[in-house]
Design goal:
With 85 residues, this protein is of the alpha+beta class. The chain has one helix at residues 2-39, and strands spanning 45-49, 58-65, 70-75.
Length: 85
């Protein structure tokens, strides 16, 4: 009976390790896609939008600063400088 238990424990250990590896791979892929998406905003992009329907249209600039790794948006037509991020 001890042999059967050790075989089952080994099988469960392999299954758990497989699930952990898949989860880590998933998060690695998500990080890669997020990095690619963020880097596409190294050249800031300005959009005109509103947060709520009752607000006026406003300029928002989406930006990514590779030196500080800051990704965000600000009101106006220019991104903040690296010193202010």
């Amino acid at each position: 009976m001890l042999c059967n238990l050790s075989k089952h424990n080994t099988t469960y250990t392999i299954q758990i390790q497989t699930l952990i590896d898949r989860g880590l791979n998933l998060f690695g892929m998500i990080r890669q896609f997020a990095d690619e998406y963020a880097h596409s905003y190294e050249v800031p992009k300005t959009i005109r939008s509103q947060m709520m329907k009752n607000e006026p249209l406003t300029d928002y600039t989406i930006y990514y600063d590779p030196t500080t790794r800051a990704f965000g948006f600000t009101t106006g037509t220019s991104a903040p400088s690296s010193d202010n991020v």
